[in-house]
Amino acid sequence: MTEKDPNLLLQHAPLLQQGMTTPQAMRDVLYALLPVTLAAVWFFGLGAILVLLASIAGAALTEWTFASQEKGGESLLDGTALLTGLLLGLTLPPGLPLWMAFLGGAVSIGLGKVIWGGLGHNLFNPALVGRAFLLATFPIAMTTWAPLTGADGFFTVQPSNLALPFMQSGTDAVTSATPLGLMKFEQQSTPLVNLIIGNTAGSLGETSGLLLIAGGIYLWMRRDLDWRIPVSILITVMIFSAILDMVDSTRFPDPLFSVFSGGMLLGSIYMATDPVTSPITPKGAWIFGVGVGLLVVLIRAFGGLPEGMMYSILLMNAATPLIDRYTQPRVFGRGKALT
Amino acid sequence: MSPNDLTMDDFLKGLWDENPVFVHLLGMCPVLAVSNTVINALSMGLATLFVLILSSALISMLRRIIPKQVRIAAFILIIATFVTVAEYVIQAISLEIHRGLGAFISLIVVNCMILGQAESFASKNNVVTSVLAATGAGVGFIFAIFCMGAVREVLGSGTFAGIDLFGPHYQPWVIMILPGGGFFVLGALLLVTNRINGWLVARKEVLEQEVAGSSATPGR
Fold first, then answer.
1. Most buried among A22, A103, B163, B178, using CB within 10 Å?
2. ipTM of the complex, rounded to two decimals
3. Which of B169, B175, B176 sits opposite A168 (nearest CB)?
């Protein structure tokens, strides 16, 4: 009765229904990632699909195993596990053995989400937890980048993809360097056109700058995305790397290269904006983005690894509760914000 | 309850019910730090058992002489004596193990499990009971650190006590030998033991209800 009759609303706030549900938001992100996924298959061949499927299967199976004990498996249907698996898969190198991708998906959900209490309770982005685990566990396989296969080699599956569980691949894989690796270790820049289109070596979903931005704009139009986070990350990275570039342009890349190379766009648009692990206040979102941007450039320029997107997002995830606490807006009628 | 039962109970509770690692979460420093191989884990466990038994015995003997105000300092002194003995013995047996364990042999002094045993048990009970309880806790500790070492070495290097298990193509899980892997394995083992304890408690409750129900039945 109370729900139908608008004159007698007996529920407490929020009274305005937004109509946005978790499955719907997840579906939007999946649509936004579809072009990137297709580009990954186009550039890296059939092996890319297998890696993505293995990672999704690991995530979904773990979610189902744990969630089915609690609530009849309904949390699998909201699509968050599928999205986590897909996002993790897009950050993996093309030649990764499938069992590692599966393990990564399982760790993402198991250690990244379920152990914290499920959706909405996790401190760190689950996909990045899985990737950090894989990078620490299999450092060589996670930094072996298979070369592009191109259109003629669509059915290419890297031999290292098919390594038996718990085994290394027997043969030595053909490898190539990522643009960031070339920059860091050989001071060799990659043309910006290749970075924007995406025909460079790298993780499955990070190469094509154009499609990543297109997906981001779609998400922003659908209001699934806090635009402040990617914008502040990218502006910070540009400013900071422009300063470094002025200091020593042979050692440090120019700002546009910094933005379009590596996992910068994939991370800032799809992972840093995870609503669970990023600040909810607008001011907090700016602080979060600036922090991620500064850390990325610091790690890329002075750290031991060529890429630092994953660690900087994870570090800022850890700071998110603190940021949220200190950026609470002033309550109307009160002098100071509640801290 | 006869005194005999009591002493056996003191021994047995250290093995599982009051396992120093899995239940009391004591002695985490060696459990996390030197459980990366089975050999390291076992030698650390044995050294700890040795120190635990002898220090408990001596503290129990001296419990009426040690003044309450300086008891912690006295306990540390006694423990440190036996740790020094253990360190020299390990050095004499195998220099390799001594290098593998490194500073963690000396750090047995500050293992809170040993000090806890001294403070909460040995300083209040007679020598036989103290030694029994110390043996139970020490064996429980060896069991726990051995489980850690076995999981971490098999996954992290593909070997068990140095014996190659899976052939040359095995892909080692590097993180398992690193400190991070110690936390993962400890967490997983705690999960398993808590699960088992949950089942045991549930079963015990069911049994008790049945016993209560049958004794209440008239005519029996």
1. A103
2. 0.81
3. B169
